[in-house]
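Quarterly update from the structural biology core.
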Amino acid sequence: MLAVLTVALLVAADEPAWAWQKSMPGGEHWPAIPEPGGMANFLGTWLPQCRHDAWTDHGNMTLHEGGRISYEKKKPYLATRYRVIETTPHYVVLMTREAPWKQYGEILRFVVLQSVSPEPDWPRATLGWNECRPQPKDLAGFSWADDDAALARVWAGAKSCNPEFKIPYEGSPFFGNRGWSQECKFNRIEPESRPHQ
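Predicted structure, tokenized:
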């Protein structure tokens, strides 16, 4: 039930720190990822700017090398593992995994990480997090333990999430007209701050 509520909150939340993605990679609000580029740029600890229960309840999020995600919350119900699928100059595509909970099985999602241009409302927001929970048919036969080639094939054929299959529209020209949550912006916690374990 908690996992279902999480999905509903991610889709329905509509606070000032949420905004539909209105630009394309390389556009005014979607710059290239700064050096060192790729996933390395997003490692570290981040303060969520999304005012809804799921992120607020978990506190700061840390993206670690090796595919681990940790939070201030000791027993998280958000994703705790990630795998990199694709790296481009403007975004990184991940698959994330939420561990099984009670009678619910694991939840796999696609996530696009991007570097965010500073804006008046988010002067220090440097990470954009967009996610999509694929339809079961897009994951048919796939296991989290499968190799990288299998993961890439699943992403390439994920009609419910991959932008290649989407119908662009003005409010979200890259992600298309369904499937993806609204973007969550994060502020980086300065390196000298003591990260949680």
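The chain has one domain: 2-188.
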